[in-house]
Every structure is written in structure tokens, then in C-alpha cells.
Amino acid sequence: MLKSAALLALAAVVTARKCHDLTIPISISARNAVFDLPAPLSEIDVTSFFLGFVHAGINYTDALLTGYKTVSGHYNIAATYCQPDHGPGKALQVLTHGIAFDRSYWDYPFNNHNYSYVAEAVDEQGYSTFTWDRLGVGASSKGNPINEIQQYLEVAALTELSTLLRKGCVKGINAKFSKFVHVGHSFGSAITYNFVNANPDFSDAAVLTGFSQNANFLSGFALGGNFKPVKEIPSLAAKYPAGYVAVPSSVGVNIQFFAPGDFDPKMLASAFANGQPATPGEILTIGAGLSTVNAFRGHLLIATGERDVPFCGGNCSDTTTIQGAFPNLLAFSEILFPNASTFEAAVIPEAGHGLNFGYSHKAAYASIFDFLRSSL
Ligand SMILES: *[C@@H]1O[C@H](CO)[C@@H](O)[C@H](O)[C@H]1NC(C)=O
Ligand SMILES: *[C@@H]1O[C@H](CO)[C@@H](O)[C@H](O)[C@H]1NC(C)=O
Ligand SMILES: *[C@@H]1O[C@H](CO)[C@@H](O)[C@H](O)[C@H]1NC(C)=O
Ligand SMILES: *[C@@H]1O[C@H](CO)[C@@H](O)[C@H](O)[C@H]1NC(C)=O
Fold it and tell me: How far does the signal peptide extend, from start to end residue (predicted)?
């Protein structure tokens, strides 16, 4: 009797939030770049691609660009909707993950979901959340890795999903929201940046995590990953078309996402085991639209780990690359958000690029939810 009551109590704690998986058909189109690049199939092809990408003195995206073409398609997007036990939350957070992961980045199962952003958002803060596997990744539809799966088409996917969510037209979500928060991580922040620029009044607030507008340090990420052809990685080979590229070792994942001293080695092993690939088309369009002055009119937070490699070169407080004109590399973005209701930049002490994976995740979530509490 006692034992089953205890089990029930435990079950009630564990299942506090109600989540279900969705498959959402969408029809979208975007003006994509056309690159003169064969899909890299061998290790040497992949390495040559990354050496081209980091090569000083040229803009590799521009060097390979032959023009632009509208790409259209019908795709299935894999997503998960969560809400508090008692019903829909006070706003819907639309969460877009970055390169090397899928939507589980936001509700990471490691250590009994102890690190989960979704658990914090839904159970502690009373939001609903919508996480999606970016087009081309995880359980969402895949596509041509050069000229189809690019940032432009993924922005179109986020735009369509957001529109369906606001209209209450997503089958399986019996709630209609008037308040939205768009949150991205890394490449997902780039997608979110372009979404809120094109739809400046859609979201009440936006949070760009693992992000800055300083492109000086992407080479650490590009080379540090030791990327290989996806077909050489047994756990991914059957799930992705040839031409995708992935990080083949925990050393690569460590360099890209984890700051020294800020992580449980078992979390690194888990992140490596669950890693997902990227497309060369995504890597070439990672910076698309990011030097554009942003029209967003809601509240804006940029939250990035102090030791983030791709966006801060391992030290967001070193402002040498911007001649010391701002207190840190994130604060620089304020001039690019002239119409935001408020702008905040939070450097998360000791954190790496994978904010949701470090011991520092608590400090990151505290910054984000403090910001949202004062914004909404
Ligand atoms: C590189 O070239 C692309 C394509 O022409 C362009 O969109 C992008 O802004 C360029 N990047 C930089 C840093 O100049
Ligand atoms: C996660 O684990 C830590 C250490 O065991 C604990 O202090 C904390 O309360 C846990 N957090 C959640 C959300 O369960
Ligand atoms: C900011 O708002 C002003 C006034 O509405 C408008 O003229 C300007 O174009 C906006 N800036 C951007 C970058 O959208
Ligand atoms: C980061 O850079 C700043 C400014 O150059 C320097 O004062 C600080 O010691 C650096 N931090 C670390 C952790 O290296």
C-alpha cells in the first residue's frame, strides 16, 4: 500500500508536464542559394570543404554561389508540444535547436531530465513549449544537402509552423495562443533572427542563445569538429542522405559545445551518442541575413556562454575584434536591434556553446526566465 502510494507520488512528479509528439505536414518555398559544389562524399572532400570555409581572405559562400533559385516542397516536420498539467501555458515558446542535435536538445533526457529547458519552462514557469526537428534533421523530412537544406528554407519552415500555431491549426494542439516567445540555439538562433526580422510583431519576446553577430570565430567550430561524411558514421548512416556531414568523436563535440570544468563527462558521452549531422548548404548559409539591421519590435535577449567557441572564440568578454567599443561581444548587437522594446545581453559565466548541457545551465535558465518575467 505504502509502496504503491510512493510510486504514484513519484509518477506524479515525473509526469508533471504533458507532452506529445506531432508530425506536421507543411508546404513551403524559399529563395535558396545555388552553390557550385558537389555533395562531399569522402573524408578528403569533407575536409577540403571545411578548409575552404575557414580559408582567410575569401568568402567561401560567395565563391561557390552561382545565383538564387526558388525551392518548394511538401515536408513533414517532427515536433513535440508540452503544456502544464492543468492546461495551456501563459505563452507558447517556439524552440529551434542548432547544428549537431535534434529537438531533444531542449528536453534532454540525461540525468532524469535534470538539465531540461522544457521542464524549467513548463513545470516551473508555466509556459507551453513547441520543439521541432529542423527541416532536414532528426525525424523531419530530409533533402538535398547542398541546394535544398539551407537556412533560407528552414526560416520558411519556422514561419509556416509559427503561422499554423497562432491560427490554432496544428492538429494535435488543442490550444490557441496570443503570446509567443521564439527561442533559438546557435544555428537555430540565426533562423530565429531572420524570422523576427521578417515578422517584427509576431513574438512578444525572442531569445537568441549560443549566438553573437561576430563571425570571426566560426573556424574553431568548423575545424574542431573533425567532420566526416555521414555515411561513415554507423549510428547515422542509414538515416541521412549522402552529403551530410557529422562530428565523429566526443573530442569534436567537447571542443564545439562544452567548456572546460563545466560538465559531467557522462553528459558529453550522451551528447556525442545522440549527435545529428548538418548539411554543407546549412554551413554555407549560417550567416545569411545576420548583418541586416533587425526590424524586431518585441523584447530581445542574447544569452551566450562566456567560453563559447564559435561565437566568442572562447571569451565573450574579449572585445579586441570590436575595438573595445562594447562591454562584450554580445552587447554589440544592440545597434542591430534599433526597434526592439528592450535589448539585453547576458554572458553566462563559465558556460560553453551547448548552454543546455553544462553545469551552468541553471544560470543560463535563470537569466532567460528573469528576462521573460520582466518582459511579458
Ligand atoms: C559572403 O557572401 C554571401 C553571398 O554573396 C553574402 O550573403 C554574405 O553577406 C557574405 N559574407 C560576408 C561576411 O561578407
Ligand atoms: C537536479 O539535480 C541537482 C543535483 O542533484 C538538484 O540540486 C536539482 O534540484 C535538480 N533539479 C531538478 C530540476 O530536478
Ligand atoms: C524602425 O521603426 C521605424 C519607425 O517605425 C521605421 O521607420 C524603421 O524602418 C524601423 N527600422 C527597422 C530596421 O525596421
Ligand atoms: C577574457 O578577455 C578579457 C579581456 O581581454 C580578459 O580580461 C579576461 O581575463 C579574459 N577571460 C578569460 C577567462 O580568459
Answer: 1-16
Whether 3 is covered by a domain: the verdict is: no
Average pLDDT of the residues of the chain: 95
Tell me the ligand closest to 340's alpha carbon: 3
When divided into structural domains, the chain yields a total of: 1
Q: Rounded to whole angstroms, how far apart are CA atoms 217 and 198?
A: 27
Q: Which domain holds residue 347?
A: 18-375
Going from the Cα of 181 to the center of ligand 4, the distance in angstroms, rounded, reads 32
Which ligand is the nearest neighbour of the Cα of 215?
1
Tell me if 354 is assigned to some domain: yes
Buried b (16+ CB within 10 A) or exposed e, 17-50: beeeebebebebebebbebebebbeeeebbbebb
Q: Would residue 246 count as lying in a domain?
A: yes
From the list 362, 271, 259, 365, the residue with the least C-alpha distance to 312 is 259
CA distance 219 to 56: 10
Rounded to an integer, the average pLDDT of 50-58 is 96
**CATH code for the domain in which residue 94 is found:** 3.40.50.1820
- What pLDDT score does 321 carry? 86
As for ligand 4, residues whose beta carbon falls within 6 Å of it are 315, 317-318
What's the confidence (pLDDT) of residue 323? Answer: 87
Check whether 259 has a pLDDT greater than 60.
yes
Residue at 215 is within a domain: yes
| pTM tops 0.90, yes or no | yes
Q: Which residues of 171-191 are buried (b: 16+ CB within 10 A; e: fewer)?
A: eebeeebeebbbbbbbbbbbb
Q: pLDDT, tens digit, for every residue of 120-142?
A: 999 999 999 999 999 999 999 99
**Which residue from 2, 172, 160 is spatially nearest to 82, judged by alpha carbons?**
172
Least distant ligand from the CA of 200? 3
Ligand 1 first shell, C-beta below 6 A? 59, 61-62, 65, 215, 287
Q: Helix 151-167 crosses helix 187-198 at what angle (to 10 degrees)?
A: 60
Q: Are the C-beta atoms of 364 and 353 separated by less than 8 Å? A: no
Q: Is residue 68 within a helix (H) or strand (E), and if so which, with residue range?
A: strand 65-84
- Please tell me the distance from the alpha carbon of residue 300 to that of residue 107, in angstroms, as a whole number: 23
